[in-house]
Amino acid sequence: MHCGWRGLFLACVGALASAAATAQPLSCGVVMMHGKWGMPQSPYLKPVVQKLTPHCQVKLLEMPWSRNRLYDRPYADALAQIRQAVAELRQSGVQWVAVGGQSFGANATLAYMAQVGDADALLPMAPGHVPEIFYQVSDVQRSVDAARQLVDAGQGDTVVEMTDINQGQRRPVKTSAAALWSYFNPRGWGNMALSAQNAKKPVPVFWAIGTLDSLHGAASTDIYQKLPAHPDSRYLVVRANHANTPELAAEDLLVWVLARTGR
C-alpha cells in the first residue's frame, strides 16, 4: 500500500490497522461436546456453532459416549481429550477458552472443571446423564455393581454389558468394567451435583435449560447453585425440550460470550 501522500495518511493508517486486526487470530475459543450417542456435527449444536464460529475458534470433539465409540475409553480419557483441545487453542494464541456442550457434553463440562479446572468459562446446555438416577434401575444397577467389583479386584479390563438409557431410549453397550464404572458410578465424575460443588475455581457459567427438559426445575437449579458463584454467570430458561435447548439459547449465548470477551 502506497502511503506517501500526506492527505492520505489517516486513511492509510486506518486501512493498515484494519488489515492488522483482520489478520489477528480470533481471541476466544470454545470446546464443544455432543450428547450421548451423538457425533461432533450434532444437529442440536449446529445453531450454536453457526453463531459462535464468526467470533470464536470452535473445536468439536468426538467423545467416548458417541454412537460410534459407546464408552470405549474411561472418563479420564475423555477429560484428557478436552484438556488437549483447550491447550491447542491456547497455543494458537486464543486468550479466552470456554468448555461447553449439550446433554452428556454438559455433564463433561462440569466434570472437567472439577477435575482439571483450566477453562475460562463453562457453557452447559440441557445437562444430561444422571448415573445416580440410572443406578435405581435394577438391570443397570446389576451391571454397574459388577463393573465396580471387577475394578476393585484389579480386573478393570474385563468386558461387561449393560443397557444404556438416553431420554427414555435404551441401547445395549459392551465395554470394559473400568470404563463403565467411570461413567456410571453414582458417586463418580458423572454425578453433576458433585462435580459442580467440586469445581476448582469460580468462572462465568452460561447455563441453559428447557422447560420441557426432565431436569428442568429443582434438579437443574440444585446443580447450578452448587457451582462457585460468579457475577457474570447466567441461568437461562428457554421454552424447549432436551434436544432443541441449544438452538433456542444460541442467540443469548452469543451475546453473553461477546460480552465476556469484550467484542
Can you characterise this structure?
Helix 2 packs parallel to helix 10 (245-261), helix 3 (75-91) packs across helix 4 (104-115) and helix 6 packs across helix 7 (177-184). Helix content is 42%, strand content 20%. It contains 10 helices and 8 strands. With 263 residues, it is of the alpha/beta class. The protein has helices at residues 9-23, 46-52, 75-91, 104-115, 131-134, 138-152, 177-184, 192-197, 218-226, 245-261, and strands at residues 28-33, 56-61, 96-103, 121-127, 159-166, 169-176, 206-210, 234-238. The chain is globular, with a radius of gyration of 21 Å.
Give a concise summary.
By secondary structure, the protein is of the alpha/beta class. Helix content is 42%, strand content 20%. α4 links the parallel β3 and β4 (121-127).
